[in-house]
């Protein structure tokens, strides 16, 4: 956990520093915005900024956004002035802490940002085998590929491997390859020199250099552009990187852990992922089973989340009734552990009486989980997919894939998100396919949700 404290509050921040360090944080100080930006560009990085409310927080937020630096801000001040707190939140701060700081409050904020509460909870033998392999290879420097459906806990397992490695006291840096636009991802990974492109106002150290000595997690690496994969392969092989606009290679010492919710062997066959990069990354594969294939974990995790959210919300910790257990055990959990966690959080808040009953096990829309019906768009898309898969003999894979994608999109009423979920591909992959079809003169159904993607003109 890396904490950057910005401001000079007459010793009050010294107390905050002491509390943070007692909770395992590495603390860096900056007197003002300029110094803070130099620290962030320089490679020390920060998981959290604790900023004096007297400073211009909106200006700092805008500076961070302009240079694509992602770090949450918590404002702090020596008074309980509600207006100052509200203004700080409106300016972009995530929270406001009055000073002098309460030790428990500081610890809670640090834990929330560092996700220290995300424990590795399991009971099922299928998951136990994965954990055993993770323990065996944690002490090495071998690259690790963690695969599994969305929500299974891939990042949690990556942190588990890091904390049991010889690099545990060094940085654990994570970057989501699917969440950052392609034209910015290279700079995020490798950094850039001043003037390398529009908006590059100063040298910026990338994630590779930030992670030196520690572990770099490349989350959802399957979404990385093939061109950038070549540069990544060189960095892994030669242990050097080139900043964007730079002229001199920079040595790095990191361990790579990558995750993917897609079958990368298929991506290699499709030409969207380099085979040599896969070999480099996939020295050890930790494959996390979906929650529906590890039934013993369902109740273990459910009880863990009940305890966690009962304490967090200050409500009694109720046992889970036998009928509620049946509902939980028979659900498919398409969203895996993440879906189960959200469900149990709602259950803790909705439960009445002495137990958590089935009426408290509900969907986000408020329907009972065991009575919820499939959304119409999803049902239509499923039917479309079944129809398209008939009469496949004599057709090319590319033709079948195109028809499946377009028919699914049509029956989803143009909703890209629903279509991508049904097809089991990322939105980026779907968008690339649609652009390819549009370039070939094939009409594309317009987006069903305004603003989701720019409408593609029907051609032909």
Automatic annotation (TrEMBL):
GO terms for biological process: phosphorelay signal transduction system; regulation of DNA-templated transcription. SUPFAM superfamilies: CheY-like (SSF52172), Homeodomain-like (SSF46689), P-loop containing nucleoside triphosphate hydrolases (SSF52540). PROSITE patterns: RESPONSE_REGULATORY, SIGMA54_INTERACT_1, SIGMA54_INTERACT_4. One of its GO terms (molecular function) is sequence-specific DNA binding. Residues 2-114 form the Response regulatory domain. Keywords: Activator, ATP-binding, DNA-binding, Nucleotide-binding, Phosphoprotein, Transcription, Transcription regulation, Two-component regulatory system. The modification 4-aspartylphosphate is found at residue 52. The keyword Membrane does not apply. Signal peptide: none annotated. Pfam families: AAA_lid_14 (PF25601), HTH_8 (PF02954), Sigma54_activat (PF00158). Residues 120-349 form the Sigma-54 factor interaction domain. This is Sigma-54-dependent Fis family transcriptional regulator.
């Amino acid at each position: 956990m890396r904490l950057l404290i910005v401001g000079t509050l007459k010793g009050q921040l010294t107390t905050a520093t002491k509390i943070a360090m007692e909770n395992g944080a590495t603390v860096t100080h900056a007197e003002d915005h300029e110094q803070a930006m130099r620290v962030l560009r320089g490679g020390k990085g920060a998981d959290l900024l604790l900023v004096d409310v007297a400073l211009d927080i909106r200006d700092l937020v805008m500076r961070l956004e302009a240079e694509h630096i992602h770090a949450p801000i918590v404002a702090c001040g020596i008074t309980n002035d509600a207006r100052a707190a509200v203004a700080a939140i409106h300016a972009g701060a995530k929270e406001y802490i009055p000073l002098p700081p309460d030790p428990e409050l500081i610890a809670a904020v640090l834990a929330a940002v560092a996700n220290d509460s995300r424990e590795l909870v399991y009971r099922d033998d299928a998951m136990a085998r994965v954990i055993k392999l993770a323990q065996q290879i944690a002490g090495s420097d071998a690259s690790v590929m963690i695969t599994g459906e969305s929500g299974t806990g891939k990042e949690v397992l990556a942190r588990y491997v890091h904390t049991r490695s010889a690099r545990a006291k060094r940085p654990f840096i994570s970057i989501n390859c699917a969440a950052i636009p392609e034209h910015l991802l290279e700079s995020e990974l490798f950094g850039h020199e001043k003037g390398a492109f529009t908006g590059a106002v100063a040298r910026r150290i990338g994630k590779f250099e930030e992670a030196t000595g520690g572990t770099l997690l490349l989350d959802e690496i399957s979404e990385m552009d093939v061109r950038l994969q070549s540069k990544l392969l060189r960095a892994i092989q030669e242990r050097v990187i080139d900043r964007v606009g730079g002229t001199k290679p920079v040595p790095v010492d990191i361990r790579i852990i990558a995750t993917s919710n897609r079958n990368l062997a298929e991506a290699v066959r499709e030409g969207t992922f380099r085979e040599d990069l896969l070999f480099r990354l996939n020295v050890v594969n930790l494959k996390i089973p979906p929650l529906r294939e590890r039934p013993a974990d369902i109740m273990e995790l459910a009880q863990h989340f009940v305890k966690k959210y009962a304490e967090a919300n200050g409500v009694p910790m109720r046992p889970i009734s036998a009928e509620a257990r049946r509902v939980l055990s028979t659900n498919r959990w398409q969203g895996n552990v993440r879906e189960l966690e959200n469900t149990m959080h709602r259950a803790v808040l909705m439960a009445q009486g002495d137990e958590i009953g089935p009426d408290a096990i509900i969907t986000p829309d408020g329907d009972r989980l065991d009575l919820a019906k499939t959304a119409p768009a999803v049902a239509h898309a499923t039917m479309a997919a079944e129809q398209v898969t008939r009469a496949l003999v004599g057709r090319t894979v590319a033709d079948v894939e195109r028809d499946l994608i377009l028919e699914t999109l049509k029956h989803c009423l143009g909703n890209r998100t629903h279509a991508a979920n049904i097809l089991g591909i990322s939105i980026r992959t779907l968008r690339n396919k649609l652009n390819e079809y549009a370039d070939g003169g094939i009409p594309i159904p317009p987006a069903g949700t305004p603003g989701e993607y720019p409408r593609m003109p029907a051609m032909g």
